Structures are given as structure tokens and as C-alpha cells.
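Researcher: Please generate the 3D structure of the following complex. Treat every line as part of one assembly.
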Amino acid sequence: MKLSEHTIHCRIDKSDRFRLADHDPAETCGLDIEKKEAKDLLADDVKRLSDLQERLYAEDRWSVLLIFQAMDAAGKDSAIKHVMSGVNPQGCQVHAFKAPSAQELDHDFLWRTTMALPERGRIGIFNRSYYEEVLVVRVHSKILQGQKLPKGLVTDRIWHERYESIRDFERHMARNGTLILKFFLNVSKEEQRQRFLDRIEEPAKRWKFSMGDVAERELWDRYMEAYEEMIRHTSTAEAPWHVIAADNKWFTRLMVARTIVNALDRLDPKFPKVEGAALDELKKAREALLAEEKSDARRAKNQR
Ligand code: ATP
Ligand code: MG
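Model: Done. Output below.
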């Protein structure tokens, strides 16, 4: 499969028919990182993203929200690091969502999101997000019990109600000028096992390993069901999910970069035009600056 066809396959549009089994975590579209082509493709996209982000910032109309969800060790952190490597840090912010604090639990589940949303002109990245509310919270009923919701409101409809709240929230954000792209990094259970082993074996990676990660791994199938349902119910035209093959980190980066670049290209942000009176002012400023240079040169000559 070609890369451009594959980006279309990754984007979930016919969401009611979505099946995780149709997406191979080991897909590479026949590319090989050892070949120059893959490296060049990523370098090109990083450069294009940097240019597009400059225009987005200058235009100051749209915000971009990138949401990353995945099992542990799927490569969220490294995808974010590499794809955003060319972007001016001033125009970009990353927020990692951990288990909610006591204060956060005193509010509805979207409350803590609002403050972390990107301003116009900026790219905001959510490393995990409110989607944990239909993933980890669904897999562990104890977490839901700890959320202090009134008893009558916790019914077997709760997950569908949360999908609905999320769809409504994202539609609202889209209507107000936020471009939303959501990425599920689809790693296989075997590749996760290998990466956990690497984390244990390599001293520089040990800090990343936690015993909790192994406990979550044992619930793999339940997580996959929760992801599949989540993608079915929250893929929309204004906020699509992208299922990204994640067994090869270089391919994950390439796909994430390409998806963001294509979406920003369609947005086509433009540098604001300076015209009319503002342009006349600029011309005056230019003349004044040039005159300064001449008078400095004259003064220097007289002093000699
Ligand atoms: P790394 O890949 O480095 O381990 P991480 O994203 O897994 O990064 P951790 O600090 O290990 O970061 O984990 C954050 C934890 O917070 C995850 O286990 C996640 O499920 C949990 N979490 C995030 N949001 C919520 C939520 N709303 N309710 C409960 N748990 C949550
Ligand atoms: Mg973790």
C-alpha cells in the first residue's frame, strides 16, 4: 500500500464499521528506514510543518489540538518529540494528563481540559486526554466509583453518555476555530513486551518502567475493546481518529507528521497582508532607517 493511500486508510470515517483487526500494527507501506527515502520523507514533513506552524502563528485565527492515546510504550513521547522537532517552541504546548487530582475530581470530567486548550495560532498537544475517561476508567470500575458521581447518574449508559459529551465538546471546539486531530498509536502486544524488556535491560530506560504497566498489560484485551468502541463512537468529520501503526517507531512518526502536514495544508494559514495606510507607515519607517545609516556614515567620515 502506498503512503498516501495508507493515510486515508488510517483516518476513521465510516466509524460504525471500524474494526481494530483491520489495522496492522506492523504496517510500513513497503518503506524501509534503512533506505534514504523514509528519512527524506520525514525530514521534508518536519520542515513543512515548521513553515505551516509559522503561518498558523502569524495568522492567529485557528488553534490546532493534537490528541495522542495509546497503550504504554507505544511511542507517544517519541512521536511528539520527533514530529515537533522543527516547530518553534513558542507556538506549541504539550500537556500530559495523569490521574486526576482531588480538586479535578470535584468537577465534571472535561473541566481540567479547558485550561489546557491551545490559544489561537498555537498547536496544543494532549499526551493522553479526556479519552482516558472511556478507557482506563472503563477498564477499572474502581476508578469510576471514586469519581464522586451521584449514584443515580451511574448507569450502564454512562459510556455512551461520555461519548456524546465528548462529541459535543469537540464539535463546539471545531465551530470556534480549533482543528482537532486524534491519534491512536496501535502497537501490538508482542512489540510492547519487547519494549518493556528493553526498558528493564537498558539502564538509561529503566526509569520509564513501572510495575503498574505490567498490570495494565494483563488487561490488554479489555483495553482493545475499549479503544475500538471509543473510536467507533467518537470519530467525526470535525475530529477524526487516526489509527497509526506503531510497531515501527520511524513509521509512526512519518504517518503522524504526514497527517498533520496534510491537515494544516488544507487549512492553508496565511501571513497577514500589510496594505494601505499600514504599508505607507512601513515605507516611512524604511526611509527613516535608511537615512539613519547615511547620517551615521557621514558622522564617521567627519570624525576621521
Ligand atoms: P509513559 O509512557 O512515560 O509511561 P504515561 O502517559 O503512561 O507516560 P504515566 O505517568 O505513566 O504517563 O501514566 C499516567 C497515568 O494516568 C496513566 O496510567 C493513565 O491511565 C492515567 N490517567 C490519565 N487520565 C486519567 C483519568 N482521567 N482517570 C484516571 N486515570 C487517568
Ligand atoms: Mg506510563
